[in-house]
Design brief:
The chain folds into two domains: about 1-195, Aldolase class I (TIM Barrel, Alpha-Beta Barrel); about 195-225. It is built from eleven helices and eight strands. The chain has helices spanning about 10-20, 30-35, 45-55, 70-75, 90-100, 115-125, 135-140, 145-155, 170-180, 190-195, 200-220; strands at about 1-5, 25, 60, 85-90, 105-110, 130, 160-165, 185. Strands 7-6-5-4-3-2-1-8 form an eight-stranded parallel β-sheet. Helix 6 (about 115-125) packs parallel to helix 8 (about 145-155). The chain is globular, with a radius of gyration of 22 Å. It starts with a strand and ends with a helix. The model has no long low-confidence stretch (mean pLDDT about 95). The structure holds erythose-4-phosphate (E4P). The site of erythose-4-phosphate (E4P) has 12 residues, from strand 6 and helix 7.
């Protein structure tokens, strides 16, 4: 199981990494825009360099289909072994992906909605395919059935891994785990709550209370009787 933080906000990213169970950072142009990255970084290179320096996991960089070379030039000096290049799953994306793979980058085909797209990308041997769960639901697609079909369409011998993306609720997360998704990217709000449950919190409080009684009892036993 791999969990990624879906964000371009540096505070959220830092907090997520400090949770200790996040293995990667996924970004896209919309996330960069909402984080206003231009206000906090000299350029894209310094932004992604900062993310790489935060931990030793993977950083996903989405390139535009138009003028993608500009973004590639920006990130050119950065550690390619940990940069994953995201490319939307459209026909001109395939040509670009092949060129970029030849430069030694790993690819994540993103905005994947159909099993056919998944088959094509897996046959190109990309590292990841990101399926947009919530957006499928918004589009009126039976998202869970669709993601199941996508998983089934990729041969078990394939190295391509399916990342569930665009996840907004615990119900969506839960149903994805049930069908065997083991790579997920989630926003900070959900991510930080993954470890919590009201029941666990109540149990933990009760254990603390009982341990305090145990320690107190030991202390009382040791206290010299006057
Ligand atoms: C992740 O890689 C995606 O870019 C992200 O989850 C998109 O989903 P959303 O914009 O619907 O949240």
């Amino acid at each position: 199981m791999k969990l990624f933080i879906d964000s371009a906000k540096i505070d959220e990213i830092k907090n997520s990494i400090s949770l200790g169970y996040v293995q990667g950072i996924t970004t896209n142009p919309t996330l960069l825009k909402s984080a206003e990255v231009w206000n906090y970084n000299k350029n894209l290179r310094s932004f992604y360099s900062k993310l790489l320096d935060l931990f030793d996991g993977e950083v996903f960089v989405q390139i535009p289909l138009r003028e993608f070379q500009n973004v590639l030039d920006e990130i050119e000096p950065l550690d390619r072994t940990r940069l994953i290049i995201k490319i939307p799953s459209v026909s001109n994306g395939v040509e670009i992906a092949k060129r970029i793979m030849n430069l030694g980058y790993k690819i994540c085909a993103t905005a994947v909605y159909t099993p056919f797209q998944a088959i094509v990308w897996a046959s190109l041997n990309v590292e990841y395919i990101a399926v947009y769960f919530n957006r499928m639901e918004i589009a009126g697609i039976d998202a869970i059935e669709n993601v199941k079909n996508i998983l089934n369409s990729i041969s078990s011998k394939s190295n391509t891994k399916v990342i569930a993306a665009s996840i907004k609720t615990f119900e969506q997360l839960n149903s994805l785990v049930q069908i065997g998704i083991d790579h997920m990217t989630i926003g900070y709000d959900l991510l930080e709550k993954l470890i919590e449950s009201n029941n666990s919190r109540n149990d933990a409080d009760k254990f603390d209370e009982d341990m305090a009684s145990v320690i107190e009892a030991f202390y009382q036993k040791r206290k010299p009787k006057i």
